[in-house]
Design a protein that fits this description.
The chain is an alpha+beta fold. 29% of the residues lie in helices and 28% in strands. The protein contains 9 helices and 15 strands. The chain has helices at residues 2-16, 147-164, 186-200, 221-226, 276-285, 297-306, 310-324, 328-332, 340-347; strands spanning 24-25, 31-33, 41-43, 53-65, 69-82, 85-103, 106-114, 127-129, 172-176, 203-208, 214-215, 234-236, 240-242, 249-255, 264-269. It has an 11-stranded mixed sheet with strand order 3-12-14-15-10-9-4-5-6-7-8, sandwiched between helices. The chain has a two-stranded antiparallel sheet with strand order 1-11. The radius of gyration is 23 Å and the shape is globular.
Length: 348
């Protein structure tokens, strides 16, 4: 048995300690990766600037689900910070009802937004084929439950564009996540932000908590960069030259506090990459909270305020069951909220 353990230990060591990473690996030819180089580490200096930073995040929760319809609560929150103080915040939430319809002899998912406010400007953007490449699962039809993520993302981008109208030159928008467009119809929302931001001189960026990017050896970017043992707080740039119209960004990796244990992927609109050295120090100033040191407090605040808890979801489900009255028992027969996996989870 000792031989088995030794073999496992050697395999782990060989694949974590001895890899020689050369660059980030991209499968898309629109991305040209640059070799790793210790000279691409840039120290983050203290800044005296006091530009405003707007942080945006969203949350979604499926309240009622059947095979052919889904009711979700979508919530988008933003806060604006200046000199590390929150000077404004707002939360918008609405319900999204998605149902399956027959269109051109195929199943499409159609969504109706139930809200007093105009969150999504074009309802046609929410009519998506169940075999759409950006939402389907492998080779199979997408679940209707995949739609809330798309709706939430469009809502975050729509509200970000509205925020840009109310910011000033060199103020910053920070989205939770990448600037890459991954859903059908998403690009029009992202381009709308860029257009408004460029007119006002507002900088558009995004910070991702996690990244699926790997090196050419299949290693994580974090591990590859940590091997350089760069001290203090820094940003690493450039990563790649991106020519994709679906991803108009310049990518960096950042360590926003000298005591941080995490490195994050940071993106800026590629037409504004000359502002990178001004934006990152401002983010670092916002990343001193001991709750998650090295991560912007504005995004901690946004995540907390946008998140929909399981307790809230169950309360809403109970609320609607009461509202449906005697019809609820009949409706429950069509629901698939408790499937075999959930039953097994409860047994466990």
């Amino acid at each position: 048995m000792e031989d088995v353990f030794n073999k496992i230990i050697n395999l782990v060591k060989n694949n974590s300690l001895e890899t020689k990473d050369n660059h980030v690996k991209f499968s898309d030819p629109n991305y040209k990766a640059f070799p790793f180089d210790k000279n691409k580490f840039h120290p983050i200096e203290k800044t005296e600037k006091s530009n405003k930073i707007a942080f945006i995040d969203g949350g979604s929760s499926e309240i009622i689900k059947s095979a052919n319809f889904s009711l979700s609560l979508i919530r988008v929150y933003y806060s604006i910070f200046q000199n590390n103080k929150r000077i404004k915040s707002n939360k918008k939430e609405f319900y999204a009802f998605t149902n399956a319809i027959d269109k051109d002899n195929e199943i499409f998912y159609n969504t109706e937004i139930i809200s007093k406010e105009n969150i999504i400007p074009d309802k046609d953007d929410l009519l998506i084929s169940s075999f759409d490449e950006t939402i389907k699962q492998g080779i199979t039809r997408a679940s209707i439950s995949s739609m809330p993520n798309l709706i939430r993302r469009f809502s975050e981008l729509k509200i970000s564009a509205d925020i840009a109208d109310n910011l000033e030159k060199d103020d910053i928008i920070v989205l939770d996540g990448s600037l890459q467009c991954t859903f059908t119809n998403e690009r029009k929302y992202m381009d709308n932000i860029y257009e408004k931001a460029m007119k006002k001189g507002v900088i558009v960026s995004g910070l991702s908590k996690t990244t699926t990017l790997m090196t050419d050896k299949g290693n994580s970017i974090n591990n590859a960069l940590n091997k350089f043992k760069a001290e203090g707080k820094w940003y690493y740039n450039p990563i790649a030259d991106i020519k994709s119209d679906q991803h108009k960004a310049d990518i960096s990796f950042v360590k926003l506090h000298e005591k941080a244990k995490h490195i994050f992927r940071f993106e800026i609109y590629r037409e504004q990459k000359d502002k990178l050295g001004e934006v990152i120090p401002l983010l670092a100033e916002n990343s001193k909270d001991p709750v998650f040191i090295g991560y912007p407090y504005g995004l901690i605040d946004a995540d907390k305020s946008a998140r929909i808890s399981n307790n809230e979801k169950e309360m809403l489900k109970t609320f609607f069951s009461v509202k449906f009255g005697k019809d609820w028992e009949k409706i429950k027969e069509t629901l698939t909220s408790i499937d075999a996996h959930e039953v097994l989870d409860r047994i466990s």
